[in-house]
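Q: Got a minute? One more chain.
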Amino acid sequence: MAFKNPQTDSFHWLVDMLETVEVGLVVLDLDFRVQAWNGFMENHSGITSSQINDRVLFEVFPDIPEGWLTRKVDAVAMLNTRAFTSWEQRPYLFKFRNTRPITGTEEYMFQNLTISPLSGPTGEVDRVCLLVYDVTEFASSKRALERANDKLATLSITDRLTGLLNRGAWENLVDAEYERFRRYGQSATLVMFDIDHFKKVNDTHGHLAGDEVIRHTAQVTLSNIRQTDSAGRYGGEEFGVILPETDAEGARIICERIRTAIEESTVKTTTGDIRYTISVGISQLEEGPENYMQWLQKADEGLYEAKEGGRNRVVVV
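A: Always. Here it is, folded:
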């Protein structure tokens, strides 16, 4: 008759659990030689326990950040306390490919890592245990949500037709530029312009063709201003540009470039080719305006003068 040894049974249960659990388990001595390597690690690395046993971890995985992991392990061993690192701090320790079909958009497995001290018979820490958790599904969902939120934030300030800033977002920048002038005295110039006879474009060619003209105007504007400048669609066929650290003459040169480029271009639509022009008003910020709205109004007065003066021109006020 055979007798069962409870301690032996418990040991086999423990080994079986460590081999099948969906968590990576790695035991290292303080020289970073691998002492244990469970089934999770075998499955995702393609390296068996017998192949890696007693080998230095960094020799097998040279892309592991040696300095970073060494500091972590040294602190765990010295303080005899656990350390934890999330995927947000470091996406992964082991560069395993993502094999989950649900999160197939992620190339690599995102991992959380726990490092625990292991004491020998003397009570001194002589090994550490790394627990590697696959958190790809959670990380992927969070990253997708963050991307969606970023996209919503961008859409909330963007004019859908042109890709320029919408009126609210652009006016906020005008206000900020005005306050910067009040505080630091840096020169800045505001530009307001619109498309001449735009109603005639819509009446003759239709609103879809009119949209093409508006988009073309935005593209020409963006291609002729600097990265530090801010263009927005103010409404309908009217646009605005903020030119920081620019005086009226510098703004006039930029605006003449935009005006000429538009005058010399042709917008091809399904209803025919469209040639058009713009009228531009420019206002350099000085001590006169008491708020950004008065600055806007002054640039708009320049636009009105350009219209009254025959259109297709730039007026500085």
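A: Residues 12-143 form a domain with the Beta-Lactamase fold (CATH 3.30.450.20).
Q: Perfect, thanks.
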